[in-house]
Specification:
Layout: H1 8-15, H2 18-51, H3 53-90, H4 93-96, H5 99-120, H6 122-128, H7 133-146, H8 150-165, H9 169-193, H10 197-221, H11 238-272, H12 275-291, H13 293-311, H14 315-342, H15 344-348, H16 359-368, H17 375-385
Length: 387
């Protein structure tokens, strides 16, 4: 990378105070992750408050399946971001120029496969998750519509990860804020005005994905990125595939394991419980996911710091960055986790306002989240070993 293109934030990543840098990068990153997490939370919120428990139960069964879309977005985006951040640190312009084409082609391939399978076999997939009757119908409607936007989501997330890897996390946060704002607005219109119910919730998310994709693409087309972009010469760099997949596969592996876990749980609930139990577990998962938002944001902020310094062979700074982020992340998470453990009914009532939660519900919620404070160590370690 030439000195003309080396931004102020890049200099800070190499030489600045790590604690100040952590807050500078992580705050917009946390806001960005919050925005993205709000999308699935908003879907659950509108279903639970404006449609009913059956709709929430159906969407809850579909969301673990849709997380596979996030997984493939992470496979491509996180893998590419790791490659690009190390290339920036090492001054490898040739590698930087290959990333854009890879994101485009890989996203088209994987999203086409996801869309075909998800749309064609949506009913069967929801049934496998334990859905039946009206719950299965609601889940199928949501999933069929949602997968139609997978190409836009994967491309948008892939581009967003590269923007993060360049240290421009604030810009990516702005794009995510617009994404969520569009989703909220369209959800309200489609549900309260047009009464499109579950399909309307999914359609709002898909259209928000399209807007996010356009915003992220415009950043590269306008020449704002460090990497070279030429839409007339889109090609796949085969030599980078192994490196991208070896780093990004953990981002795919995580939602796959979540899918397996929730497949077992939802089937057990479907067999031994009732639809309201599925809705309760779905609400619990949504609230629990909010606990992790600051940690995911910190990890996204950590990625360019350790990636660029690793590329520049500054291994002491890599280690120091990991330890500082992990320690502060753990302390922060404890302060967020405690209110949820102390007042679970109050928080669950945000999604299911008409439900009177039993002592068993409260106990189950607390057990599910009891090990949350140790999660930062695992997540930051994953980020470290992305290298």
């Amino acid at each position: 990378m030439t000195s003309q293109k080396q931004s102020q934030i890049t200099n800070e990543i190499f030489q600045g105070n790590l604690i100040k840098l952590m807050f500078k990068l992580s705050i917009p990153s946390i806001l960005g992750i919050l925005m993205l997490s709000l999308n699935t939370f908003i879907d659950a919120l509108f279903a639970g408050r404006f449609i009913g428990e059956t709709a929430l139960a159906g969407i809850s069964l579909a969301l673990p399946i849709t997380s596979i879309v996030n997984g493939f977005a992470g496979l491509i985006g996180v893998g590419s971001a790791s490659v690009i951040s190390r290339a920036i640190g090492a001054g490898d312009v040739k590698t930087q120029s290959k990333i854009f084409g890879n994101i485009i082609i890989l996203s088209v391939i994987f999203s086409s496969l996801i869309t075909f399978i998800g749309y064609t076999f949506s009913k069967e997939l929801i049934s496998i998750m334990g859905g039946n009757g009206e719950v299965a119908l609601e889940g199928t409607r949501y999933l069929k519509t949602y997968v139609l936007g997978s190409i836009f989501f994967i491309l948008g997330e892939g581009f967003g990860e590269v923007i993060n890897s360049e240290g421009k996390i604030i810009l990516n946060t702005i794009f995510n804020l617009i994404f969520v704002s569009v989703n909220i607005l369209l959800n309200y219109i489609f549900i309260t005005v047009y009464n499109w119910e579950t399909q309307g919730i999914a359609l709002a998310t898909v259209l928000a994905m399209v807007v996010s994709f356009i915003l992220n693409l415009s950043y590269f087309i306008a020449g704002k990125s460090i990497i070279t972009v030429n839409l007339k010469k889109i090609a796949i760099a085969v030599d980078l595939l192994r490196e991208i997949f070896s780093v990004g596969v953990s981002s795919l592996f995580y939602p796959v394991m979540i899918l397996v876990q929730e497949f077992v749980i939802y089937n057990l609930i479907s067999h031994y419980g009732v639809n309201s139990d599925i809705a309760f577990f779905g609400a619990t998962v949504k609230l629990s996911s909010f606990t992790f938002i600051p940690i995911i944001g910190l990890a996204n902020a950590l990625q360019p710091v350790i990636g660029m310094n690793y590329g520049a062979k500054n291994y002491i700074r890599v280690k120091k960055s990991y330890l500082i982020f992990a320690a502060i992340g753990t302390i922060l998470l404890i302060f967020i986790w405690l209110p949820l453990q102390l007042y679970p009914s109050n928080f669950l009532g945000l999604i299911l306002p008409e439900v009177n939660f039993t002592e068993d519900n409260v106990f189950d919620f607390r057990i599910l989240n009891i090990l949350t404070p140790i999660w930062p160590l695992a997540y930051f370690s994953n980020t470290l070993f992305y290298l």
